[in-house]
Amino acid sequence: MDKIVIEGGKRLSGTIPVSGAKNAALTLLPCALLTEEPLTLRNLPRLADIDGFQHLMNQFGISTAIAGSRPEDFGRVMTLQATRITSTVAPYDLVRKMRASILVLGPMLARMGEATVSLPGGCAIGNRPIDLHLKVLEALGAQIEMAAGYVKAVAPDGGLPGGRFSFPVVSVGATENALMTAVLCNGTSHLHNAAREPEIVDLCNLLVAMGGQIEGIGTSDLTIHGVPRLHGATYMVMPDRIEAGSYACAAAITGGDVMLKGARIEDMEATVQALRDAGVLVEERPGGLYVAAEGKLRPVTLSTAPFPGFATDMQAQLMALLCKAEGSSVLTETIFENRYMHVPELNRMGARIETKGRTAIVHGVDKMHGAEVMATDLRASMSLVIAGLAAEGETRVHRLYHLDRGYERLEEKLALLGAQIERIGGD
Ligand code: UD1
């Protein structure tokens, strides 16, 4: 299997483009199910998860075409058209590889009156149940049945009435499924304590561009007036705030500077605040964000939280950065129960991190050293790359398929900034 080899200790400096957001793309793609007309998405990142989702859409009989992109370009343009849907089943084989497949449940149900999706099962960062996805669809009028590892949602005769639901826990995915269903319901729906991540706003903006009627966009109280049909649209995927934050940490840990072209400060204020608290300069400049680190890093205390709080998807990367701070940082993970799998690997590189339940205490060290490391999830893998950039000697990161799920041409972007990094084949 391929691995990434990093020779640490190079100061990163330069400009890189921020790619389209993976997590936005994964909820914009299933919107193609909601209309017979073409949906064109621009700025889709080239990632294994996007290819996987394309495959899933093809499985439903949806045509997908990629236009006008050269191999050297970042991002792609994809046109999807669901003129006729030939299958309403998302099979185990595809869902197991990509949890985001659950996001077809709502739009398929809304368009076809039924949808069957394999249960995704557990995943490395925790249990990740889908009970809220099912409860909110029930509140909108669906009947839910479970059999043989599959969940089937069915609309009553005459279609889904719509309804009211208050989320007991903020869930990004369940809010997305609810929105993609409610837009085609017969009546009006109200969602309370909905997620308001920028990716949810991106989804709402696309649904409105397709003729959806949504009030309260950007807040946790959403009102959706169902419409009988939606039409096609052309839409640009938002920039990836997690990718941008990751490269900010990468530059900062090397004492370097980076211009993140396309990054939007309003999507990542909690990350920007955490970086500033750590002593990193972050400036909004025309066309993006400029990040520079000089001198010592300071320790930080924070907890992950739903937006606008500090994103759980940034926790591992910030932790890698804080390994080099002067003093002890305290990070608390409140969203997922098993999201510290990078800790033993970082410790193998010379970090001093202790975990107590959901809290990690990161004692800053002067030096880290390269090692062979592997990680079991996407953001954990990136934290090891970040640590490797600052470590003395060589770091080899195994299991690249995690990174390929979420970072478009990672080693190319880091090399553009002056990192000594390469992907090599072999086992
Ligand atoms: C999305 C993101 C993921 C990010 C997470 C939190 C995508 C493709 N993935 O995941 O990168 O880390 O948001 O920002 O966009 N929960 C339940 N029942 C449910 C659903 C969720 O109890 O039915 C719980 C989860 O276990 C977790 C919390 O709610 O503790 C938040 O999860 P959720 O926001 O749903 O995460 P995802 O949408 O899966």
- Counting helices, strands and paired strands, the structural category is alpha/beta
Here the CATH topology of the largest domain equals UDP-n-acetylglucosamine1-carboxyvinyl-transferase, Chain
Strand order of the largest sheet: 22-23-1-24
* Chain-averaged pLDDT: 95
Bound molecules: uridine-diphosphate-N-acetylglucosamine
Q: Quick one: how many beta strands? A: 24
- Silhouette: globular
CATH architecture of the largest domain: Alpha-beta prism
The top level CATH class name of the largest domain: Alpha Beta
Low-confidence stretches: none
Beta-strand level of the residues, as a percent range? 25-35%
Fourth-tier CATH superfamily name of the largest domain: Enolpyruvate transferase domain
Report the radius of gyration as a whole number of Å: 21 Å
- Straight-line distance between termini: 5 Å
Summed up, the helix count is 14
Mind describing the biggest β-sheet? 4 strands, mixed
Give a written overview of the molecule.
The chain has 427 residues and is an alpha/beta fold. The protein has two domains: 203 residues, UDP-n-acetylglucosamine1-carboxyvinyl-transferase, Chain; 215 residues, Enolpyruvate transferase domain (UDP-n-acetylglucosamine1-carboxyvinyl-transferase, Chain, Alpha-beta prism), CATH 3.65.10.10. Helix content is 30%, strand content 26%. The chain has 14 helices and 24 strands. It has a four-stranded mixed beta sheet, with helices on one face. Strands 2-15-17-16 form a four-stranded mixed beta sheet. Strands 4-5-3-14 form a four-stranded mixed beta sheet, with helices on one face. Helix 6 runs parallel beside helix 7. The site of uridine-diphosphate-N-acetylglucosamine has 20 residues, from helix 1, helix 5 and helix 6.
